[in-house]
Amino acid sequence: MTGTAPAARSIVAGEAVPALELRWLDGAPPVALPAGCTWGTPLQRGTLTDIARLRLRAVDGGTEPAQFWPLATWPDGSLKWVGAAIGARSQPAEYELVITEPRAESGEREDDDPRGRVHQEENAGDGPVVIVSDRLRVTFGEAGGEALVRGIRHGASVIARDVRLVSLRQEGIDELGGVRVPAASVVDEVVVEQAGPVRAVVKVTGHHREPSSRREWLPFTVRFVIVAGSDQIRIVHSFIWDGDAERDFLAGLGLTATVPLRSPVHDRHVRLAGAGGGLFSEAVRGITGLRRDPGAEIRAAQIRGEVLPSSDRWDHRVSARLELIPAWNDFSLSQLSADGFTLRKRTRAGHAWIDAGAGTRSEGYVAVTDAATGGLGIGVRSFWQSFPGRLDVRDAAGSDATVTTWLHAPDAAPMDMRFYHDGLGQDDFETQLEGLEITYEDYEPGFGDAHGIARTHELTLFAYGATPAVERVAVEVAALQNPPLLQPTIAQVEAAGVFGDWSPVDRSTPLRADIEDSIDFLLEFYLGQVDQRRWYGFWNYGDVMHAYDADRHVWRYDVGGYAWDNSELSPDLWLWTSYLRTGRADVFRLAEAMTRHTGEVDVYHLGRWAGLGSRHNVQHWGCSAKQLRISSPAYRRYFHYLTADERVGDLLTELRDSDRRFLDTDPTRKVRTDAATYRPDPDALAVGLGTDWGALAATWLADWERTGNERSRDRLLGTMADIGALPHGFLTGEALYDLEAGRFDTSRDRIAVSHLSAVFGLVEIVSELLSLVEVPGFRDAWLDYCRLYLATPEEQTAAVGAPLEGIHLEQAHSRLTAFVAAHTDDPEQAAAQAERAWAAFEGAGEWLVHRRDFRAERIRPPFVLNAVDEAPTVSTNDAAQYGLAAIQNLALIGQYLPHGEAGA
């Protein structure tokens, strides 16, 4: 929805300011909001500096309790992005943000609500962190202990203890398996990041330790989010794989908790989520289906999960023989692929498992509860998509049950992180470049190492004061997998002027509609390919493939550098920009999954390449090109600002010093002409002004606007000034960087152009920078680059003395010419540049299809494993850059499109 400016007004310093309309991602308000909601909203520059003046208001009612905090500021110090949170609601409404008049700091806000407040409990001395809400009391673990959370109290009952991480490391992998060594979490630090009044966030960091050897590995960060009015605790769990791929095979990784049970076994219940809203709901000792009937009232109560009536109200033929009815102690659901799960149960260890059910795609929820005093559920978002996973209940018939969600199931094959081939004799740069020519794989011995990559999962703890009704569980599971999310409207984001050049969807002319249809085709195609091609799995979910093999009717999953895309040519940016202008929930969730993946799995978080990402490969970490173009915050900022997600904030912060990687990992070491003599010099590091500086600029911008870090600000503004001062600006291609000073040598006089420079976020970041700050010479340097890239050889020669070499991807670069047209004051020149830009966009270009000739065809067995749609002319490079060029051209020079028939 594009909408119109809302009529509601708020007051800022005596002036009327439109209220900031919000919308629910999935359209109408959800049926319920059991876990509250956290989101981000942009503000126009200069609108507000005092966040205490923000309020949340129901569109048809009064103000609502909400919590606000700054996410980013404009260069003038005003708020650019704000995080916001509301607590749980039984009937959420439509909302808007309003700005109140300035007033005295003393006293409570008028919308403060003492009910439902969340706060940190005061404790004397160095006791554990305790967070208290109107529903829960959560006591966290302490440094040196195994428990992340020592106890969760719901009402008068402790419903869970010792919430901790567990893992299994297998030593060796072959047909006979290997010894499995268990490990458990050890807490290093507990930090309260937010303490209410609506939302509390506690960050627990630590590592896994093996009791037998005291070995420590798998560092983790786990955030717990507790909100007012909610029985749920949201968890964001991230770990770094820091093993030795030749000997460490992770055979299990999970979160487990102890659940005290007090009632008779027939009053205990297990719930497991199946597929499509289905639930497995059984008592630990069932009293239905017996030879003798305890009574309809008794059976119905157990099915509902209620405390059963006193046994003297049962048929005595049943109540007198309860001990002869088996109690089912253990339950297990295994999701070992994206397409199937199995469910088993047994009476106790040492006895056979009994098949209890099966299905396709479990929605990742398990709970064990006592009908009288409650219990605990755990859910994993994107459970089946991130297979192999497992859900376990153990000792349900004892006094202390355990409930475990395995993020990597122990009954699956252990993780094998070894590189997938032996090097094929590629021992020097010459043979490696030859390999690049045939399989497009950039190989180098020792570089296909996963040491330092990460993975993030989102989980939820469900605290129950009694066994929940299946109808309640169904609502909770649906919200677990598709959390309700408030968002700014398209109009509000556009008015705020964030995220560069884009505009809402406009089908007002035949040619505009034709271009919009082509963008929609590509979005729909990729949304469908994820499922058809089963782009799922622990390390894979969220990424897409790079290029297609029409002969085999498969994406080139096994061909060197053509397999997993790893952000190549910016599909992340295409998806996020598409979301901004459409508001589509399905596009948001694909972009969200990609952000979770590419920011974690495709980037190194510790070790020799910390801060760098890996180029596309058969394995996400397999390529020897370790570069900033993949780890760039340009791909992550969207999700962070739209959701206020703290984990992605961590990813942005950890890149702050990524410029130091140029000391040890030269990104152009294999192809530079001075390779024989070039040695990294901290006073003169060779930094490309395209993919390298674009990523650094995104890093420094994100850090400056999020934290106010002056070092990042100075490096950003300083290098912008240096690019403006270079004799040929961006056309220099590569400048010499003084690491300590954070500045370029402005005397370098050379010309080098690469077709990749502007297709990894440089266009988007420069557009933002030009709207943010005025730096002498920088705008002119960028306009010169944009003007000359698609200029005629004669125009290039007149400007720089010779035609530019390295001009490719003309269709993608049409947006550079469009930028010139949009920023030219002379109407005739603007029209001429716009005509050139649209001509380049409509031309074939390199790899891109003339006149949007996109077609999908259904291929059926026996020619393929499963029926699939294929569009042989589409690759991810094409789709991403075509989509971005189309969106940005429409925003910049849409008025210059012909108004006749499409294709004219």
UniProtKB/TrEMBL annotation:
InterPro entries (alphabetical): PcRGLX/YetA-like, PcRGLX/YetA_2nd, PcRGLX/YetA_3rd, PcRGLX_1st
Biased composition (Basic and acidic residues): 102-122
Region (Disordered) residue spans: 100-124
Domain PcRGLX/YetA-like C-terminal alpha/alpha toroid: 483-897
Chain ranges of the PcRGLX/YetA-like N-terminal RIFT barrel domain: 20-94
Span of domain PcRGLX/YetA-like central beta-sandwich: 129-474
One Pfam family here: PcRGLX_1st
Name under which the protein is recorded: Tat pathway signal sequence domain protein
Species this chain originates from: Microbacterium panaciterrae
